[in-house]
TrEMBL record:
Biased composition (Acidic residues): 404-413, 1130-1155
GO molecular function terms attached to this record: metallocarboxypeptidase activity; zinc ion binding
Organism: Macrostomum lignano
Enzyme class: hydrolase
Biased composition (Low complexity): 1095-1107, 1120-1129
Family membership: Belongs to the peptidase M14 family.
SUPFAM superfamilies, sorted: ARM repeat, Zn-dependent exopeptidases
Name of the protein in its database record: tubulin-glutamate carboxypeptidase
EC number: 3.4.17.24
Keyword Protease: yes
Length: 1215
């Protein structure tokens, strides 16, 4: 029969629906359509090769079948119609055809037919099965199937049919539909109430007995029992159960029904397979087994999400079975996917435990509180510091609680309680940012910090002018170093905190000098007498809350970068799963677990406080033995400047768990580590696990490796910090936080290191340390270097004294001669760095910039600008090994709106100096705050664009220029950056965006190999209003205010692509920054977008044109043919705001919520084709970002399957 017969019958059916009124009775109508549909069915079934797509392209044909189901209530007509639909859909590749029927209302028609047949007195099982077969084919293309089925009450029909037992094909279709129904939360709950969970468990249990060989189909039929489900339906039953148990109520029903035991038995029996005759049959069998195991793993994840489910899983022996299954799994992508899910289950099922530490707070927190109470006024003592007693109570309460596995992105209350954004901030963002002091008060406080205005034109030593004191902060110069202060009384503490009456020590490294003449580890440390650049002699100026015992080895020698670039690490995608399985083995099979504490900072500090004496002078006899063969484990030490290690626990012979100290006074902020280890043995690798990391992802998953300094290598003439480690990865662990510290989980940074020398003394760090002592040594060297060149005017002064008594240096660098321009008229560039102590890479950038300024190559640059550099804004945090906070337990980069003179003297006086420069007509033309970034690659900048500000119609910034109104509507209304002018300008004009803020980043993208324009971001978020960049831009009127971000990790573009950013590359970045500022000043065009830069204006041209905020005009310096950049000249005269704004945990950084690179529209431009940025697909936030979005291989921390992204920059996700 040809295709013409089929079309003839279709045409007849279409004609029937158009002319139904020709029949006199309902019986005639039904008889007629019955004949037409029967002939159509026969014609379709008789065709060996049916052109289904060509038939369905005629919409009337498919529509006629749907109308027949909806309008004709006859069982035989429905059977024939459903048969025709099945023939048109076909057995394979039916997705596009099914979509046609769904669009025509086929799903609704089939559901109504099922409901109608089920309500009839004698339902026809064959018709119901055929209808469900059609519905199973339409289900994947109808997202609203679950809702339609629930409204038509089709779910009970599926359950009833499954209870009666069906053929393999029928059962598989019904189970697929059951899973589709369960996609709706309401339908899933309804199915659970109707016994769907118990039914599926019974089907899986019978399937297990069939697979395991306890009963075959023939024996089951002979015994009168239900025949076990074959492989395909068993897989569908497990998939439906996994979908149903996503609802908590259904998961509870599954636990009550013994789901854990059933699934574990099925998991154990899944290895038993029948011998297949052919390779294709074995492949299909293996594929069905993989699907079944995946569904079992998903169901076990849902079941073990509750405490009762975990208990049932343990009772059934699930952890051991799952562990053995993972070890025996196939080495394929499917096997990795299953193992990833199994790792999540094992982590969920691990015994609940808090961190193995006596307190959530640093062991130095009592000493910090004592320092605040005894050395400052009562206002400073009100800093948010919790006592150890409260932390112990919190830890005890958490030990008995079962915390949820859900991630919580909320920040810790300790940092945020003083940094909540004001509700009224949107009404007037300008209020609160300006310094409330008058110009005369600012001149009296900071006038001596302008040595460039004096007649002195040579290199000057450290200023003899008195330190700018912190109000209510007495000088600590009279405090005897190494001697205890008087204990605070209960009245002084105010009764708010309970502190033991122990003395707090300010223990500088110089009070306990390192015994360098002794033999350490078999050979003497290098003598500092031969290393002039070593920072150890400068340690006398260090004051710390932490009690130092040694001077770190790298501080005693002149450390140099390695002579070669260090490539990024590579790691197998299954590395994290292997390590997680190894962690699970600790509690599944603890036979080889030692669990021995080999270093405990809490115990050391407690013992010293009980004895009321400072730590003894560092010598070999007083320290733990570190020589080869002294003990049978590694020895650790972190009691030195910038050191951070709280506890080391030996798990196995060559495996150690490490706990980092949180920021002093804080319950979190753990990322920076720096510690010494000794007694190493060459050969097999040691595994180290940092188990209390907090960020949900890390560049350790994208090729970054930790750094190591070897004393033995230094003795051999190679004093380098080198990237080391294999099997480096980052994943979520099973440790829980106390309720008082939030519900965010902890993560493990794991790496393995094989040491080269026996008995070596090594130091491990997150990044190459740059300590306060090294800064003091650099200041000495810079002063000596500048004294050799009479053309350099170099001044070193002290800006203020920190809360801990450490002095903040301020450098002034310019040209001594006035050949180019008088020093008093040179524009100022202000640079700050290291406000976050854990961002050591920022200090290396500043170091490179200063070295460049003092070189002969910067002669022209010095003659054009005066550089004010505050290289370290948080010396207390750097000295004490903090990651983010100061001793006031706040993020100093969240205090710029209204810094407190007592608690935040560093920011108070830095902002005061900048305010003084603005009030005296010497507003900085460029301000750069240097940071480190832990989530992105490369070096990049954050700037400020008024058109991308969170404030609508934002006028409180220097980014707008007043312009004449457009001549007519046909005039172009957008500038070169695609920003539309805004009405409301003075005199009926408009505001246009000043593109000058883009020039410096564009130049850097052309000049610096490590700088990436595509990572730059110019958004102004509300959460960043209290940061240095935004305050300098909005409240101080500095148009070019930036945050320079340097990655801890790698570079993914240009000549450094695939290599780590070391100190050499970062110092080069600092030098390139200076060169870019010079090119900008000379008016060199950075590219087609934005317009070229011009020479900066003098102080006279940058004077304020008006003091009012609303409707102000700014003077714009536009030299002929040099571009259109402008220098802000408006004064800030607004009052202080009482609130800081720090809704997020990080500044533009370094944190989970740091600013990520946005789309081209948000970044304000596409990638510069003239820059050295490669055309690699950057993905969200730029290439190499640790952002996982796809599905496969691994499971992310949010319990969803994710795929390993393609490319070489990011090889795995966080488990």
């Amino acid at each position: 029969m040809d295709l013409g017969k089929v079309t003839t019958h279709f045409d007849a059916l279409v004609k029937f629906h158009k002319t139904t009124s020709q029949f006199k009775t309902k019986a005639e109508e039904v008889a007629h359509v019955r004949g037409v549909v029967s002939k159509l069915q026969q014609a379709l079934q008789a065709r060996e090769k049916l052109h289904r797509d060509s038939l369905l392209r005629k919409a009337n044909y498919a529509q006629s079948l749907v109308l027949t189901l909806q309008t004709v209530s006859d069982r035989e007509v429905h059977l024939a119609t459903v048969s025709c639909i099945l023939e048109l859909l076909g057995q394979t590749k039916s997705g596009q055809r099914a979509r046609i029927f769904v669009k025509l209302g086929g799903t609704q028609a089939v559901c109504q037919a099922i409901a109608s047949e089920w309500r009839s007195p004698t339902p026809n099982e064959a018709l119901l099965l055929q209808l469900h077969l059609v519905l199973a084919k339409l289900a994947p293309k109808d997202k609203r199937l679950a809702t339609k089925a629930r409204l038509c009450q089709c779910a009970p029909v599926v359950l009833s049919l499954l209870r009666h037992g069906l053929s393999t094909r029928g059962a598989e279709s019904l189970l697929r539909l059951l899973r589709a129904y369960a996609l709706s939360r309401q339908s899933s709950t309804s199915l659970g109430r109707h016994g769907a969970v118990q039914l599926l468990l019974r089907l899986l249990s019978e399937s297990h007995r069939g697979v395991g060989g306890a009963s075959t189909g023939a024996s089951a039929a002979a015994a009168g029992r239900r025949q076990p489900l074959p492989g395909g339906p068993a897989r569908r039953a497990a998939e439906a159960l996994s979908q149903l148990t996503r609802a908590r109520a259904n998961a509870s029903r599954a636990i009550t029904g013994g789901a854990a035991a059933t699934l574990v038995e099925l998991l154990n029996a899944s290895v038993v397979t029948t011998a297949a005759a052919s390779a294709s049959a074995r492949q299909r069998q293996q594929q069905q087994r993989t699907y079944l195991l995946r569904a079992i793993v998903h169901t076990l994840r849902n079941v073990t999400a509750s405490k009762a489910g975990r208990a049932a899983f343990h009772s059934a022996g699930g952890p051991a079975s799952l562990y053995r299954h993972c070890l025996a799994g196939p080495a394929s992508s499917a096997g990795e996917l299953l193992n990833a899910g199994a790792c999540i289950i094992l982590r969920q099922s691990a015994p609940r435990a808090c961190l193995p530490a006596p307190s959530l707070l640093s062991p130095y927190t009592p000493a910090l509180l004592q320092l605040l109470v005894s050395s400052t006024s009562s206002a400073a003592a009100a800093v948010a510091v919790a006592s150890d007693d409260s932390a112990d109570a919190a830890a005890g309460a958490a030990a008995a609680a079962v915390n949820s596995d859900e991630d919580d992105s909320s920040d810790d209350a300790d940092v945020q309680k003083q940094q909540q954004p004001s509700d009224e901030f949107a009404d007037d963002a300008a209020v609160g940012g300006a310094d409330p002091r008058s110009a005369e008060e600012l001149r009296a406080a900071y006038g001596h910090l302008e040595p460039e205005l004096s007649d002195c034109c040579t290199c000057c030593p450290a200023s003899t002018a008195p330190l700018t004191p912190s109000p209510s902060l007495p000088s600590l110069d009279g405090l005897a170093l190494g001697q205890p202060t008087e204990p605070a009384s209960a009245t002084e503490i105010g009764g708010r905190l309970s502190v033991s009456a122990t003395s707090a020590l300010l223990a500088p490294a110089a009070a306990q000098p390192f015994a360098r003449s002794r033999s350490i580890g078999g050979w003497p440390e290098p003598s500092p007498a031969t290393t002039s650049a070593a920072p150890a002699p400068a340690a006398a100026a260090v004051r710390s809350v932490a009690e130092f015992a040694i001077t770190a080895g790298p501080e005693l020698v002149s450390v140099s970068p390695p002579p070669h670039r260090e490539p990024c690490g590579t790691r197998r995608s299954e590395c994290a799963m292997e390590l997680m399985l190894d962690d699970a083995r600790r509690w599944i099979d603890p036979s080889d677990v030692l669990n021995r504490v080999v270093y405990d900072l809490d115990a050391i500090v407690a013992e010293q406080h009980q004895q009321h004496q400072p730590p003894p002078p560092a010598s070999d006899e007083k320290l733990s033995p570190i020589g080869s063969g002294s003990v049978d484990h590694l020895t650790f030490e972190s009691r030195f400047e910038s050191g951070n290690l709280r506890r080391a626990i030996q798990i196995r012979e060559r495996e150690y768990d490490l706990l980092l100290c949180p920021d002093i006074g804080h319950r979190g902020q753990t990322q920076w580590f720096y510690f010494r280890l000794a007694n190493v043995q060459p050969g097999a690798a040691y595994r180290f696990n940092v188990i209390n990391c907090e960020k949900p992802n890390s560049q350790f998953n994208c090729g970054m490796r930790p750094l190591m300094y070897s004393s033995r290598e230094a003795q051999l003439g190679r004093p380098h910090w080198l990237r080391v480690g294999t099997r480096v990865c980052y994943y979520r662990n099973h440790y829980q936080r106390a309720k008082q510290a939030g519900t965010k989980p902890y993560y493990t940074a794991s790496f393995s290191i094989a040491f080269r020398h026996s008995g070596d003394i090594c130091y491990l760090a997150y990044y190459v340390p740059y300590t306060y002592s090294r800064l003091m040594a650099d200041l000495r060297d810079w002063r000596l270097l500048a004294s050799r060149d009479a053309s350099i005017a170099y001044h070193q002064q002290w800006l203020c004294q920190s809360l801990g008594g450490n002095r903040l240096p301020l450098l002034t660098v310019t040209a001594a001669s006035a050949s180019e321009e008088p020093r008093q008229q040179r524009p100022c560039v202000f640079i700050s760095g290291r406000v976050h102590p854990g961002e050591a890479n920022a200090s290396w950038v500043v170091r490179g910039l200063v070295a460049h300024l003092l070189s002969s190559a910067a002669r022209t640059l010095r003659s054009r600008f005066v550089f004010k550099i505050a290289p370290m804004l948080n010396p207390d945090g750097v000295i004490n090994g903090n990651h983010r906070c100061s001793l006031a337990v706040v993020d100093l980069n969240r205090t710029w709106l209204a810094p407190n003179a007592t608690a935040n003297p560093e920011i108070y006086h830095t902002k005061g100096l900048m305010s003084y420069l603005c009030s005296s007509g010497r507003r900085p033309v460029v301000y750069i705050d240097c940071h480190g970034h832990s989530r992105h690659n490369n070096v990049f900048m954050f700037g400020c664009s008024p058109s991308l500000s969170w404030l609508p119609d934002d006028r409180d910034n220097p980014g707008w220029l007043a312009a004449e109104p457009p001549a007519n509507d046909n005039e172009a209304r957008r500038d070169d950056n695609g920003v539309r002018p805004v009405s409301g300008g003075p005199g009926g004009g408009v505001w246009i965006e000043d593109p000058g803020y883009r020039e410096l980043p564009r130049l850097l993208a052309q000049m610096a190999p490590a700088f990436a324009w595509r990572n730059c971001n110019f958004k102004v978020d509300r959460s960043k209003e209290s940061t240095a960049r935004v305050v300098a831009w909005r409240h101080l009127g500095i148009l070019r205010a930036y945050t320079l971000e340097a990655s801890y990790s790698c570079c993914d573009q240009g000549p450094y692509r695939g290599c780590h950013l070391g100190t050499r590359e970062l110092e080069e970045m600092g030098a390139r920054l200076g060169e870019a500022i010079l090119r900008w000043a000379q008016g060199e065009a950075p590219g087609a977008d934005p317009p070229p830069a011009q020479q900066p204006a003098s102080a006279a041209s940058s004077a304020a044109a008006g003091s009012g905020r609303a409707g102000r005009r700014r003077k714009v310096f536009r030299p002929s043919g040099a571009g259109a950049a402008a220098i802000s000249a408006s004064d800030d005269d607004d009052g202080d705001d009482d609130d800081d704004d720090a809704g997020e945990e990080e500044e533009e950084d370094t944190d989970d919520n740091g600013e990520e690179s946005a789309a081209a529209g948000e970044r304000g431009g596409d990638v510069d084709p003239n820059s050295n940025a490669s055309a690699v697909d950057a993905g969200p936030g730029g290439s190499g970002d640790c952002i996982i979005e796809d599905e496969s291989v691994l499971l992310c921390c949010r319990s969803s399957f994710v795929r390993e992204p393609e490319g070489e920059n990011c090889s795995a996700s966080v488990l």
